Amino acid sequence: xxxxxxxxxxxxxxxxxxxxxxxxxxxxxxxxxxxxxxxxxxxxxxxxxxxxxxxxxxxxxxxxxxxxxxxxxxxxxxxxxx
Length: 82
What we know:
By secondary structure, the chain is mostly helical.
């Protein structure tokens, strides 16, 4: 269940990251959402090391790490594609 939870977190995190960091993305909405899923996994993995949530639960800390991970990947993607 943890894997599916992080995919759902990632979808939501990708949309929220897009709202927080508006602008034209080189890949459009689908790429942004996929970056959100990847960012959720990265953020959740890092967050589990620092105690902000685990990969298998729905908590506020897990949600924040998913959004932060999505923002970081979205920012990095924009910098690479410029």
